TrEMBL record, chains A, B:
One of its GO terms (biological process) is isoprenoid biosynthetic process. Its EC number is 2.5.1.1, 2.5.1.10, 2.5.1.29. SUPFAM superfamilies: Terpenoid synthases. InterPro entries: Isoprenoid_synthase_dom_sf, Polyprenyl_synt, Polyprenyl_synt_CS. The keyword Magnesium applies. Belongs to the FPP/GGPP synthase family. Keywords: Magnesium, Metal-binding, Transferase. Gene3D superfamilies: Farnesyl Diphosphate Synthase. This is Dimethylallyltranstransferase / geranyltranstransferase / geranylgeranyl pyrophosphate synthetase. One of its GO terms (molecular function) is (2E,6E)-farnesyl diphosphate synthase activity.
Amino acid sequence: MTADALIHEVTSSPVAADIRRALDARWSGGGEPLDEISRYALLSPGKLLRPLMLVASAEAVGGDREAVMPAALAVEYLHAASLVHDDIIDGDDTRRGRASVHARYGVADAIITGDALIIRLFGSLAECPVPDADVLSAVRILARAGDDLCRGQMREALLVPPAPGALGSGLAAYLGMAALKTGALFRGACQAGAVLGGGTPGEVGIVAEFAEHTGLAFQMYDDLLPFLGDPAVTGKPDTSDVSNLRPTFPVLLAHREGGPAERRRIERVLAGGLAPGAALAALREVVMATGALDLALAHAQEEVRLAKSGLGVLPSAEAAGLLGAVAELAVRRDR
Amino acid sequence: MTADALIHEVTSSPVAADIRRALDARWSGGGEPLDEISRYALLSPGKLLRPLMLVASAEAVGGDREAVMPAALAVEYLHAASLVHDDIIDGDDTRRGRASVHARYGVADAIITGDALIIRLFGSLAECPVPDADVLSAVRILARAGDDLCRGQMREALLVPPAPGALGSGLAAYLGMAALKTGALFRGACQAGAVLGGGTPGEVGIVAEFAEHTGLAFQMYDDLLPFLGDPAVTGKPDTSDVSNLRPTFPVLLAHREGGPAERRRIERVLAGGLAPGAALAALREVVMATGALDLALAHAQEEVRLAKSGLGVLPSAEAAGLLGAVAELAVRRDR
């Protein structure tokens, strides 16, 4: 299957269409400024992967799509909140090809909107018409995921040089951060979906494993994108990481694989001072020369293989197939 | 009873001591930066009024103190989160006499810590050992309260001149904002406490009424404090509102009560340009001259009377008495 066909399979699936319909219906217009800004943050052209993973996990264990839909919207609220606040922290003025929330509405309203979206995560979750005990389990799962997400965001800031060992022993710290920052919400979405869908503990464990590997693959490939794509396609200034002097996955690999000259070059770039475009170009050369680009891609593809390896035993082959396609998508997209 | 004795009665009550012990035990030290910053935000010398109201409401309807303690901590998390994010928005570098969270740890970590505290609100709530249906009701109640709180924060920004009608018809808008910004969390804490304590719908309604009036009294009196106290006592730079050109309750009353000269003077101050100290002094003169200070105090006291009027029918007179003391405290404190 081509990459385009794969993206189409996922984002045009009946599940995705139902999620988009539910999101549009819930945020149909009117209301106060808080609603308007929330709508702007939510109804952007994203792929809705986390809600999709939640619904597919629920259906994979025999659950009902409509019954878990409020939870599917809920995980998108948390994701959107983290993007809104992340863009403030990183000073990113564009997101998916348009003004980020704080660039358009100001920092104050962006902070408050993110807060409101986090709160609505739990309000929406509590609307699911499934047994109370399952809803409460999902509340606990997503509270844990949200906490991990915050830990990952805070750790990310600590990985920037000259933090001790930011580059040298940075790969392990990086993978720990990625597991929290991206993996936790993927995992929370899949676990919550399986629990709300009435899955057995074994089934919940299988989708959790799937989600962790898929989350790692996504984060690894996200870090590769600035070295592969161009900003007109990714819709995000791909110098954000380098502007924030953040050593990402391929850069850390290049630092490990390279000789003294390559290491010094990376260290000089991440010490700051270069214009973002020049810094990215310099890193691209080192990442290519050391073979780190291919290596990073291979790592991400291995995570996808691991993600898909356990899905075969789930009751619904169709929903499990959709989960597999989401994992594939992690390493086959241009933004 | 003197004001000091009243404050002592509330903040040294066995309930308050138990809450402080539970909070200290939960945040005893160690952990990652996120835990350290959360501890800094939480273990400041506040009065813990919202947890106190939650526990007292639970006990007032016959509930168990220990069983609702995780929910009591939960409402303090939301309150602390709103202060951390509010201080960023208002640019306030001190809070309760020490550095605010963003002043000490930076804006990025302050945003993330506030997010984590909001998430923990729900995680902690889900720990209460009471029937699942009651925990879920409390989740819904506090999600609603949190959403209202955000609406109130956003509306507050809209009340600043030259927003249309910010001063002229501002009193109604102000009271609506205050009901959301302060009243919603007071109401949520009391409602959640009564529900988790196994109260009847009638009892839940009584504590909700109590909380709304008490919340209004608190907000009204908070607005009076800059005109009464001095910063060394309030522990907050009392020029925050005037620096942010925010027309507060006594100022709005003075605008309504005053003649054309007083109105023009208020409008000139709130148009900006004066140093904060001079602006506050000018507003103080108008607020005194128009009788708005006494009027604002009388309004706040009337809300306290209304708050206490329904408490007599609650099963536990002792817990109801503590709620009444909290309401009294609203208008008898120096910070």
